[in-house]
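Trying the structure run again after the queue cleared.
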Amino acid sequence: MPELLKELKDVQSVHGSLVLTNGPIQNTVWAQNIWLNAEIIPFESISQAAKILKSKGKLWAHYSFENHRRTELIQEQLPKLRSRVMNFLGDLPKDPIGAWTLLDKNTLLVSSETNSPFPLGNIEFNEDKKTPPSRAYLKLWELFTVYGVKPSPGQRVVDFGSCPGGWTWVLQQMGCNVVSIDRAPLDEKIAKLPRIQFMKTNAFNVKPEDIGAIDWFFSDIICYPAKLLELVKNWQSSGLCANFVCTIKFQGKTDFETLAEFQRLENARIQHLHHNKHEVTVWIRKSSP
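Done. Tokens:
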């Protein structure tokens, strides 16, 4: 929330985790869910509130920060929202979903459109709780499935800071040929998989010419943002890679200055994914000819 409030302009009020702003829709790094056509509507009764919502859309997710019981009673009168738990690379839900809350006992805040097909932007997967050695793999699952940013089978990719191997596992499952780099070894069951070349070394000691041309650069390295930016720029200037996916991890305070430098990179997009913690994910894709 502090990062979001620093990022947004024309903030009018804050209601729990919900921030209201004036003016046009703002593109943000830190917002989990953006309510695109929010409107404030007074009402007198629970049934009237439900009727208003039904008139504006079919499916609704509610956010409750106070008046919890009254919110639940209204939601109970709306069509039941089925589970939207995703399979990896599965089709995204097609039915639009609105969002609403109670600003007070008799005031609705309603948005029939949001920027996510998931309730309040909460993205859940049918997780693989046996194979991957950590839950870091969910960041790639989310990026590949929800945003469509993913490598193709047969492509050559590098995974920097790969231990214990969650990202290397996902990339191998995608059919990629993975150069996996870390000072610590991969989990044994990941290391045994085909199409994985492991290099036990410090990622910052590896020069682009040591690896050669690659299709994608992946990094989940725990390092200061400025150090990661230097590594990315080094690979960009080498001309040996044009597609990048990196986790920018903040140790202590958020480094807004370096984050802004990442944002200025050509074709860069940055988002705090649902499965990110005190970090964001940046991806840079080769521009279309």
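The mean pLDDT is 96. Worth checking whether this holds up in the mutant runs.
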